[in-house]
Amino acid sequence: MRRKDVLDLDDFSAEELHEVMETAEAMREVLSRPIKRVPPLRGKTIVNCFYEASTRTRVSFELAGKNLSADVVNVGASGSSVEKGESLVDTTRTLQALGADMVVMRHPHAGAPYLVARELSAAVINAGDGWHAHPTQALLDLFTVRDRLGSLEGRKVVIIGDVLHSRVARSNIWAFTTMGAQVVLCGPPTLIPAGIETAVAEGRRRRWGDGIQSGVQKEHAAVKVQYDLDKACQDADVLMALRIQKERQAGALFPSLREYSRLYGLTQERVARAKFGALVMHPGPMNEGIEIMPEVAYGAQSVIEEQVTNGVAVRMALLYLLAGGHGGRAV
Q1: d(CA 242, CA 101)
Q2: For position 250, what pLDDT does the model report?
Q3: How far apart are the first and last CA of the chain?
Q4: E strands along 195-287, which residues?
């Protein structure tokens, strides 16, 4: 991988995404062995800096680093010098002085990992920054869908709910459209960013010009908005419910949770409108009974637990590639 950091997926080409997916396949094979540990990162130090609460992502990165034989150090805001007023730049310089080879950062403020990446010679992976991006979650989502459905080109991926506050949705938009899928965003008008269709199209044009790289059909690699969930679910290949992020909402953006659930909750009836065998996804943690019904979350079409499992393999792949490994090669 010819890059130092992974901060978002808006600058990833289809070839780079393929490289991560192929390497994740090799890492998943490692995880199926009786001894789930290989030596590629022996002698390397990975520092997990999590300034926000996290279970899945933090544990997943910790396991990924240890499975590759790296030394893993966990740092949180609580109990660190941040409580004494240390700035992010000062923390970054401390990590540099201590010899960190890679830094995995989650931060409540958008852009924080970018600042750290500018200051550090070590590789930086964004594990979620504010409302902005969560690239590794999008990569594991992409890996899960690709594993189940094969090619993404022409697939319809519906992302439902609180898109406005969702860093997962933003990174997934780049991941799925780059691989040729059509992304449909569905939710209350107050929770869909204004002008997002145009913004994505303009961002892609600035990056890739008028064409879409690697033969992906231009009409497929697009984002559409639909406010009626029953219509959005029609003929979908993937239905992804997002968590209602009450902690990030400053005002009443919908009348009530009951009303939201009635209009935008993912039910069995709505899943039945999608294509036969459509996948049900959720980045977690779930508000069961609000954005997704329990019978859907744990039903036959759900791949939510697979997402969590695949997260370790995908994060192993990223760590390996950033350390100079060769994509797709068996470990």
Answers
A1: 33
A2: 54
A3: 16
A4: 223-226, 238-241, 279-281
Residues pairing with 302 in the sheet: 280
Report which of 47, 134, 57, 119 is spatially closest to residue 88, judged by C-alpha positions.
119
> CA dist 261 to 150, 243, 300, Å?
32, 12, 21
- CA 142/CA 38 separation, integer angstroms: 25
Least Cα distance to 238 among 164, 179, 312, 318 occurs for 179
Residue identified by tokens 């009348």 is: 255
Backbone angles phi, psi at 222, to 5 degrees: -145, 165
**What's the whole-model pTM score?**
0.92
Domains in the chain and their CATH numbers? Answer: 14-134+308-322 (3.40.50.1370), 135-303 (3.40.50.1370)
Contacts of 26 (CB under 8 A, 6+ apart): 317, 328, 329, 330, 331
Q: Which residues of 100-121 are buried (b: 16+ CB within 10 A; e: fewer)?
A: bbbbbbbbeeeebbbbbbebbe
- Supply the DSSP string of 248-273, one letter for each residue: G--S--SS-HHHHHHHH-B-HHHHTT
pLDDT in tens, 182-209: 999 999 999 999 888 888 877 777 766 6
- The strand pairing partners of 76, in sequence order, are 50
- Amino acid identity at 261: S
Residue 179: phi and psi, rounded to 5, are: -90, 5
Q: Looking at residue 83, what is its pLDDT?
A: 63
- Asked if 71 and 39 touch (Cβ cutoff 8 Å), the reply is no
Q: How confident is the model at residue 31 (pLDDT cuts 50, 70, 90)?
A: very high
What is the rounded CA–CA span in Å between residue 162 and residue 248? 10
Nearest partner of 314 among 107, 57, 129, 47, judged by Cα: 57
Residue 114, classed as helix, strand or coil, is helix
